[in-house]
Amino acid sequence: MTRSSTTGVARAALGALACATLTAALPVRPPFAGPALAQTTPTQDAAAQGAAVGATVALDEVVLPLGLVTLKAPKLELRGTALSRDEARAILDPAGPAPWRTRLDKISAREIVIPVLRVEQPTGGRVQVAVYHDVVARDVAAGRIGTLEAGGATLTVEGPGPDAAGAYGRLSAREIDLPGLARLFTETGGPDAAPIRIYGGVTAEDIALTNPDGASLRIARIDARDLTGRPTTIPWAESVRALAEGAGGGNGNSTGPERSRLSGLAADLIDGIGVGGLEISGVTFAAPGGGKRPNPVQASLARVTYGLEDGAGRMRAEGLSVDAPAGRVALKGLTLSGLSLKPVLEGLRRAAAGPLEQAELRRYAPGIGRIAVEALDVDLPAQPSADNPQQDPLKAAGPMRFAVRNADLAMSDLRDGVPTASRLAFDGFTCAVPPGTTAPVLADLAGLGYTSLDLSGTAETRWDEAAREVIVKNVTLTGKDMGTARITGTIGGIGKEVFDPEPMVSSLALLGASAKSLGLTLENGGLFQRFVDQQAKAQSLKPEELQREYGTAAMLGIPAVLGGSPSAKALGQAVSRFVVKPGRLSVSAAAKDPAGLGLMDFSTAPSPGKIFDRLTVDATAE
Fold first, then answer.
1. HSE of 10 in the Cβ direction (CA atoms, 13 Å)?
2. Range 422-456 burial, b when 16+ CB lie within 10 A, else e
3. Collapsing DSSP states into helix, strand and coil, what is residue 519?
4. Are 151 and 117 contacting, i.e. CB atoms less than 8 angstroms apart?
5. What is the pLDDT of residues 416-474, one digit of tens each?
6. Mind giving me the DSSP string for 373-398?
7. Burial class (CB in 10 A: 0-12, 13-18, 19+), 263
8. pTM of the predicted model, to two decimals?
């Protein structure tokens, strides 16, 4: 999508506010009056009395410049207002001497009607134009609008360049604070300024945006609620203008000081905006293919929501579907929780002080506490063969399809942008095993007679800063008709330097890692027996005969390799019993030295037996 299309959704909400700003000429108390309107002044009471008389004021050719946006209304009618025509015209006069906030405080009326409202916004040498129809504002007092509605809008881009167009259906907003909005756009503030509730809610329906290349985006409905803003060090209007001009340059040649200034403006502006909730439903995207996008794409999203949960952001997407030559994806649900832009803001402020090093960037990625996936289904065509890389992937043999019933990744305790505690759990990773496949792993499974793969697992680790250890609490992998493998352990010598963003520092720190303990448990669920049957058939033996041979080799060979110690013999006997009668094999090893065994210990040991002698090993077979 072009820039005009990708910003269209945001313009739906902004357009509703722009309508509200222009229609803010009403002096009666709204029946919904909330806390901000709970008290009246004598002036407001007089205005309400005047409005009750039912006076109507009509204005022609109203033009209202608001920063980057210019609003134009050929006709504007204020109904039920105490204002005279001259007073209303003076309030909306762009050249008026009084600040917008004080002027908007004087606007009250029962209803404002604007048959046609044109909103212009210059960008990149062109002008984006939104034309709203049948705009009506009701129940406005002291510049605060009860409800605002528009029957629809059309979008165009004027000026040299490719055409882009769009349209909105019904638009509505409620509880709009125009004086507060004027403060944000025209007055300075700072980190300690109190936030202002700009509106209670905005709804846009039936949004359709199209690009010159034929790509189209449709959204059935957008609902946003409780938008708040904080006056920033530089007024919003100036910040938005500077950021738009910086982004519109497009040449990437802005100077270091200019990039730093824009980073500071972006941080201040983002930190000053709050959204209580957002819901977007019925999203569809279609690109026909051709030109710069040679392949057609179809995508849809049933619903996406954003809100706050326990003080952090939470986003959920439902019913995602993507169909393209590169593959097909279907997803029932995706949840991102524990979202935080705090690292991003820190990064922007750091960039405002000077250029960022590449290694620093990971520190400033958005924070995510948890990712949950429901019912993911992926269908990929085969990759072109090495001897014919131009082969059409849709005509290549051997496509791959896999699915995940559920997956959940929880992350916490970030150190330089890297989570030091995590837990991954997935259930039902399924994949077909096509006969004759040459794909790694799948080819081996096909040889063992498997036609499908069904895996579940868990991986949970935690870094103990005080002990300088990584604790592998549990890594488990279970395969249907295969078995289960479980690993636990402790890795020592892991200090904070391992998480340093500088690769050289982290790589050198890893050289000091040491193995302190390791636990391995294997439970046969059919995989080992299939392997034995395969090998027995290849050697013209009965499976039980081959198992006895393997058992004897383990009982004699393992102690021979590991030095013949009692622990080595016990390990060999346990492995032998498991091979002869597969059930459960458990092996635990711990370094006798509390510091563990480092990389140098392994690399300089003259034989495996010397390493084994420095371990305490227990092994059992059931």
1. 7
2. bbbbbeebbbbbbeebeeeebeebbeeebeebbbb
3. strand
4. no
5. 888 999 999 999 999 988 888 887 888 889 999 999 999 999 999 999 999 999 999 99
6. EEEEEEEEPPPPPTT-TTS-TTTSS-
7. buried
8. 0.81
